[in-house]
From TrEMBL:
PANTHER family: BIOGENESIS OF LYSOSOME-RELATED ORGANELLES COMPLEX 1 SUBUNIT 5 (PTHR31784). This is Biogenesis of lysosome-related organelles complex 1 subunit 5. One of its GO terms (cellular component) is BLOC-1 complex. Residues 1-29 are annotated as: Disordered. Pfam families: Muted. Belongs to the BLOC1S5 family. Coiled coil: none annotated.
């Protein structure tokens, strides 16, 4: 910047004095505020994020559907072969 004044860090910029931890409006990355926010995020994902449950239910539904479809195909195949045998026995 022009003007010869000192610059102050803004937002998540590191302070000019060094240090390897980033500082933002809540303090350092290991501060209690960050830990609370992290815990709130975990609570939110456990209570309100239903994707894992829905995915599990969907997998179960598809698995059951495929099993029943295979069962119906085998029943149809047995019916056809039984009817063919009956037809051949009548000839």
């Amino acid at each position: 910047m022009s003007g010869g004044g000192t610059e102050t860090p803004v937002g998540c910029e590191a302070s000019p004095g060094g240090g390897d931890r980033k500082k933002d409006s809540l303090g350092t990355a290991g501060s209690p505020a960050h830990l609370i926010i992290k815990d709130l995020g975990e609570i939110h994902s456990r209570l309100l994020d239903h994707r894992p449950v829905i995915q599990g239910e969907t997998r179960y539904f598809v698995k059951e559907f495929e099993c029943k479809q295979l069962l119906m195909q085998s029943v149809d195949s047995n019916r056809r072969s039984r009817n063919e045998r009956r037809f051949l026995m009548t000839i």
